[in-house]
Amino acid sequence: MPKLSKAIEEIVKRYQEWQRLSQLKEGASTIHVDEVASRVAAFYEKIKGVVEWREEHLLRKGAIERSLKRRVFLKEEDNVKELAESLVYELIRGGHFPNDKIPESKINDIQRILEKYFFIFRKMPKIAEEEIKLRDWLIEIASYEIEKTLAPILKEELLINLMTDSLKEKIVINKGIISIGGISEKEKEIQIFIACQKSLFKFDEPIISYYLLNKKYPNWPKISPKEKEVLLEISKNIYNTKQEIKSHLNHPASEKFFSVCERNTAPYLILGDIIFSNSSDILEKINDPEALEGLIKKAYRQRLTKLKKRIGRAAVYSTVSVFITKIALAIAIEIPIDKYITGSFNGLSLGINILFPPFLMFLLVSTIKPPSKDNLQKLTMEIMKLCYSQKNNDAYEIKIAKKSKGALSAIVFLFYGLTFIVSFAIIIEVLKKLNFGILSMAIFIFFVSVISFLGVKIRERSKELTVGTKKEGFIQSIFDFFTLPIVLVGKWLSEKWSKLNVALIISILIDAPLLTFVEFLEQWRYFLKEKKEKIH
């Protein structure tokens, strides 16, 4: 019988030990919020989650980030203990964390985290153009640290480290054709670490930045606000630290590393589902190849079902979010301009503008193909290689082609530009024939581009259980020629939109008064409860 890998055995033992230690102690005080107030807040959060659509795994961090930015803007950081307490209560009321499950001691942990970041805010060099950007960047990182403190994610971290260690030996850099001045072993490891986070759990830049900050300052999560000398040194160098992290995230080879990691994600995800299944005899089961094969089949079917549901939800929520924004724009801008400025109102263009983006999303999602029939067999083989100490000669080469020079480079650039011109020229010509005005055309192109990007992103997510890569044919290449420019414009628009402080404005104008009302409702119900108790 093959011997179980020491790395896998160590992960199982660490997880089981962590589970044992993280059990809530009997009699420990937990945070309780009023159920009625919680239902009101949670309902509002669900509506807001549809309007300001984010991917599911980023919703909680987004809520913390939005709340922190609002509180910092309103200068609430003067009383950090009160801020930490009200933040945690707000998150539990909003349904982001369970009621009666979070120990009260966590408020002190959140206070310590906030004090650490606020110290850096105060002591970092004041550079007019960069200060606000740096503060926002730190708030985004702090948001994840707070989320991780309230809901630890050891499972994800263990899998990321397992995949990083595994691929370190398998990924080979082709130095003969590399055009970026070479890459050090340290940079290679960092790029694999980043790519594993992106491919396994779709972590965004703030989350990855948190882990890169941990690599630079290994004691980062435990740094106390009392360690003023340590924090002062970090504060002085924080701009350089940010630039260093950004350089890792924007490395010329980053997409190449991601591509390799992405096509090797499935075995780690399924293995994670198996070893973190809370089964006390899991080590005994995975020591037996036959039993492991049965567990793989079961975990694969379960994850495939969940994946289909998640894709469906993402498609619906992203489309509804865009649809609501489109309706709002139509009422606020498009209809008034058409009616009162141009003097004509085109109902057909408005109807197409509203209905075509959801139809496009439906088309993109409904044509997603399930994994091939032999995918499970390939997956089983890869997991067996991971679990048992067998010789594994798999190697993945990172190739970065030399940049074209002179006339050839100019031709490639012109051809790339031509794809944009042809794609958008066709769209504009069709819209002209449908009597679209200039504003209606701009709005149509904006929403079709964004929906195309979101749809393609969802299609990519659907491949997380596919082992290896699927070869693309000639027809797919022609299709990409015309659609890629639209998707790239959609990506650019989405990134620019996310950088606008629209969410902060909404948070200040709507969240603040509504959450004040929810807090009042909770206090009022506690007051009534106390009065009723005095009747007996």
What is the topological layout?
Layout: H1 6-21, H2 35-51, H3 59-73, H4 80-93, H5 105-123, H6 128-150, H7 154-170, E1 171-173, H8 185-201, H9 205-216, H10 228-236, H11 238-249, H12 254-262, H13 265-275, H14 282-286, H15 289-341, H16 347-366, H17 375-387, E2 396-398, H18 406-433, H19 438-461, H20 474-499, H21 502-535
Parallel strand pairs: 1-2
Summarize the structure.
The protein has 536 residues and is mainly α.
Short descriptors:
single chain, 536 residues, two-stranded parallel ribbon
Q: What percentage of the residues does DSSP assign to strands (E)?
A: under 5%
- What gap, in angstroms, lies between the N and C termini? 70 Å
Instruction: Catalogue the unreliable spans.
Output: 176-180
| SSE topology string | HHHHHHHEHHHHHHHHHHEHHHH
Which strand order spans the largest sheet, edge to edge or round the barrel? 1-2
Question: How is this structure best described in words?
Answer:
With 536 residues, the chain is mostly helical. It has a domain at 307-389 and 409-499. Helices cover 74% and strands 1% of the residues. It has helices at 6-21, 35-51, 59-73, 80-93, 105-123, 128-150, 154-170, 185-201, 205-216, 228-236, 238-249, 254-262, 265-275, 282-286, 289-341, 347-366, 375-387, 406-433, 438-461, 474-499, 502-535, and strands at 171-173, 396-398. Strands 1-2 form a two-stranded parallel ribbon. Helix 2 runs antiparallel to helix 21, helix 3 crosses helix 6 (128-150) and helix 9 packs across helix 11 (238-249). It is globular, with a radius of gyration of 26 Å. The termini are far apart.
